[in-house]
Amino acid sequence: MTISRFFAASLATLLLASPVLAEEIGSVDTVFKMFGPDHKIVVEAFDDPDVKNVTCYISRAKTGGIKGGLGLAEDTADAAISCQQVGPVTLSDAIANGKAQGEVVFKKRTSLVFKKLQVVRFFDQKRHALIYLSYSDRVVEGSPKNALSAVPIMPWRE
């Protein structure tokens, strides 16, 4: 396999590997840029693909400027997450039995190729809560910056 084919295959895999698409809720500008879009904080929502009625909101930094407008800039590792139960929750057997620990439920590319923001889910059986951890990683070196949200699983009242 030639280097160009390998690179093209790797890029296609990275671009198509997103488990969930997020819906943009809104954004605020943080730095004015004369050319290209401003730097901003973007707020997005996504539903856990394997747990019905759990929605997570994630805020993340988005780099602007000319490189940001062209999709060539690398976003910082800054992000926050908040998740909540929005209806009756049903856990799959794998999650309820603790066999689905650390599953990636959200992935967003934050640089052209090598960096991504991820959200993974854990289930705390003892406290009956879903835990969502957001962090940024890179092929060579990730970041220790992270954020955490817990969703207690309680009977739903209408």
TrEMBL record:
Alphabetical keyword list: Signal
InterPro entries named in the record: Uncharacterised_CreA (IPR010292)
Keyword hit for Electron transport: no
Signal peptide: 1-22
A cellular-component GO term for this protein: cytosol
Superkingdom field: Bacteria
Listed PANTHER family: PROTEIN CREA, PTHR37952
Name of the protein in its database record: Protein CreA
Organism this protein belongs to: Pantoea latae
